[in-house]
Specification:
Alpha/beta fold hydrolase, Rossmann fold, alpha/beta, Sec-Metab_Biosynth_Hydrolase, about 230 residues, AB_hydrolase_fold, hydrolase activity, hydrolase
Length: about 230
């Protein structure tokens, strides 16, 4: 494994790191060391600090991977000198001074928005009855129901956290665009990945493609890892 960078996986809002299990299994089978960040999802700066703890615990360079809100986290935390590459999976890619909220405000208005319920005590959740269709359309119904019932409350402050120095401006990035996504519209994904200059791949999958199609996600991560390991 000495010639392979470590892989650090960062989850998004409403879920936790266990959703990465199938991607983790594929990558470790291929000889990668993989670590999974568990975001508190209370604030962007707090989540970035937790990600940096995991990044700095790795031996050597890191490919930093973020799903959904995790894209904002890796954008903020990815300036760590140990990070060699960024991989965005159906993710937010903020620029300096931007937050998830500012990106949400720029979403196309001709498509339904995410079924986020009004905040309660400073936290957000998704409408359970709409979770399967919106968040996990290509995930089996029983697993989608479990994901809906095990939601992690997402702190309102995390959505408002502004990126200070976007890592994608100085680090190479890859982006998996999910063309059946009902949470982050594909046109928004294309706009964000294009602005970041990411190497992009499109797949017909839901927002939960890391659960439903782990091989597609692992393959893109390995592409980034191979580029990061290549002699400069």
């Amino acid at each position: 494994m000495a010639d392979k960078p470590a892989i650090v996986l960062v989850h998004g809002g409403f879920v936790d790191g266990s959703g990465w299990r199938a991607v983790y299994d594929l990558l470790t089978h291929d000889g990668y060391h993989v670590a999974v960040v568990q975001n508190p999802t209370l604030s962007l700066q707090g989540d970035a600090a937790v990600a940096r703890l995991i990044i700095d615990a790795q031996d050597g360079p890191v490919v930093l991977v973020g799903h959904s809100y995790g894209g904002a986290v890796i954008t903020e935390a990815g300036t760590d000198p140990n990070v060699a590459a960024l991989v965005y999976i159906a993710a937010f890619v903020p620029d300096a001074g931007e937050s998830v909220n500012t990106l949400l405000a720029d979403f196309p208005t001709d498509v339904p928005g995410p079924p986020i319920l009004p905040p309660k005590d400073g936290f957000l959740s998704l409408d359970r009855d709409k979770f399967h269709a919106s968040f996990a359309g290509d995930v089996p119904a029983d697993l989608a129901a479990f994901m809906a019932d095990s939601q992690v409350p997402w702190g309102v402050d995390a959505l408002g956290g502004q990126v200070t120095e976007p890592a994608w401006r100085t680090k190479p990035s890859w982006y998996l665009i999910t063309t059946n996504d009902k949470m982050i519209p594909p046109p928004a994904q294309r706009t964000m990945s294009g602005r970041a200059g990411s190497t992009t791949l499109e797949a017909a999958g839901s927002h939960s493609i890391y659960v439903s199609q782990p091989a597609a996600v692992a393959d893109l991560i390995k592409q980034a890892a191979s580029a990061a390991a290549a002699p400069q």
